[in-house]
UniProtKB/TrEMBL annotation:
It comes from Colocasia esculenta. The keyword Nucleus applies. The lineage of its organism: Eukaryota, Viridiplantae, Streptophyta, Embryophyta, Tracheophyta. InterPro entries: F-box-like_dom_sf, F-box_dom. This is F-box protein. GO terms for cellular component: cytoplasm; nucleus; SCF ubiquitin ligase complex.
Length: 451
């Protein structure tokens, strides 16, 4: 029997074929790639290979957007590797995807709920509002903000206050530098993040209020100057305060300051977009441990559709607030009910609980057939408090126990309804979105623009 030969030396990473090396490296994060690139010149060449960054983009966002379209939009990026630019841009904007809520008072009729979604080569922000049709679960989605890449690989963002249906198509033509295309209604803006859960959209005054095609943006240095020159409202406010007090110490300082501000206003012209602040709605979907959590929609007694946000606090309490028109007092984030009691009543229920449920009418669309409204109550939760004593005009205020007591009926379908003992109806709530897609979406063309 022949004796075995000497053991083979262990294979190193460089012994693998190049395509295998790139496939392995595509599982790493950019920070890990930077470390690996420092080990040798060959490693540095691999880490800069466009095929690697293309695979990294495709692995992370390939099922959500078209990576090749993003790379084509940023074909003129410095360094000759558009996929590197695309990866860093998508990584920065990935946190935008989902629901956000506008904070602060806004113009009348401005919906505070905003949904960001991936497009083929852009990120689109849409205002989400209830359909104006009475007794309907329809949800109106109106795009108003577009974020993409210029041919130089820099961020370009636009809003259109009166948004047409073809906003995304128009803006993609604009950013791609389509010849002869222009839209004077588009307003260039800057999207500035304040942490991971707060951002502000403000007009990019450096563009003089005129939207321009991508071939007119100028050099990359000019673009960087425009992005950095637009400061957030708190920073600008502090700068004005310091300048005001500095001018107070010099003769004629206040007068000079006012002249300077007037010149600036005259130069930039009238502001076409007022800054808007948004905060992220992190827990917008229910979980097995928190089945009531998330964004919901329900039809009220007057057959109007409203949006509701149900949250759990650290102590286990449950709060429900209405997300409505930001221009009206309290309605932008109006509290509806809360409860600290999270112990459910399980089946079988007492006769009293059966009578409470069966003696109430479900508020539902008029076109819904009875066969579609069959519900099976799986368990019941007591509401031990409402906000009627805090927020006026939501309903009659009284200290009578029946005015602050109610029930939450959880159905076997994963949805629920709520009602108060003082009323004889139940508001049944449905999901606004599922797996990131709006349910019962209504096209703006059929309802008109409501921005």
């Amino acid at each position: 029997m022949a004796s075995p030969g000497p053991p083979l030396p262990p294979a190193s990473f460089s012994d693998f074929p190049e395509d295998v090396q790139l496939s392995i490296l595509s599982f790493l994060r950019p920070a890990d790639l930077a470390v690996f690139a420092c080990t040798s010149r060959g490693s540095a060449a691999l880490c800069g290979d466009p095929r690697l960054w293309s695979a990294m983009c495709d692995r992370r966002w390939g099922s959500k957007t078209l990576i090749c379209s993003w790379a084509a939009a940023a074909a003129g990026a410095a360094g000759g590797n558009p996929f590197d630019v695309v990866y860093r841009a998508l990584d920065r904007w990935d946190g935008l995807i989902g629901f956000w809520r506008r904070i602060g008072r806004g113009a009348a009729g401005t919906p505070p709920l905003v949904l960001f979604e991936w497009g083929p080569s852009s990120v689109t922000g849409s205002r989400v509002s209830p359909s104006p049709e009475p007794g309907s679960y329809g949800v109106l989605k109106t795009p108003f903000l577009w974020i993409g890449l210029s041919p130089g690989g820099h961020q370009v963002s636009f809003v259109r206050p009166s948004c047409p249906v073809d906003l995304v198509e128009s803006l993609e033509k604009l950013a791609s530098g389509a010849s002869g295309f222009s839209d004077s209604d588009l307003v260039p803006v800057t999207v500035s993040f304040m942490g991971s859960n707060h951002f502000v959209v403000e007009e990019n005054r450096g563009c003089c209020g005129v939207s321009r095609g991508a071939d007119e943006f100028g050099s990359s240095d000019d673009l960087m100057d425009l992005e950095e020159s637009s400061s957030s409202p708190p920073d600008r406010l502090m700068a004005d305060i310091y300048q005001y007090f500095a001018n107070k110490t010099s003769p004629g300082g206040v007068k000079a300051f006012r002249k300077q501000r007037k010149k600036e206003r005259d130069r930039l012209g009238r502001r076409r977009w007022e800054a808007e602040h948004f905060v992220k709605i992190s827990d917008c979907c229910p979980t097995p441990a928190r089945p009531l959590q998330g964004l919901w929609k329900g039809i009220w007694e007057n057959l109007s559709l409203d949006f509701y946000l149900v949250t759990y606090d650290d102590a286990g309490g449950i709060a429900c607030r209405k997300v409505g028109d930001a221009s009206e007092p309290f309605s932008g984030y109006s509290p509806i009910f809360w409860t600290s009691n999270t112990v459910y009543l399980e089946h079988p229920f007492s006769n009293e609980e059966e009578n409470l449920y069966e003696g109430r009418e479900h508020v539902q669309p008029l076109t819904l057939h009875c066969s579609e409204t069959e519900r099976v109550v799986s368990r019941i939760l007591r509401i031990n408090s409402s906000y009627d004593l805090v927020v006026s005009d939501t309903s009659s205020s009284s200290t009578h126990p029946q005015n602050v007591e109610g029930r939450i009926w959880e159905y076997d379908t994963g949805t629920f309804g709520f009602g108060f003992l003082r009323n004889n109806y139940i508001v049944d709530l449905k999901h606004i979105a599922k797996d990131g897609c709006l349910l019962d979406a209504v096209e703006p063309s059929s309802q008109g623009s409501y921005l």
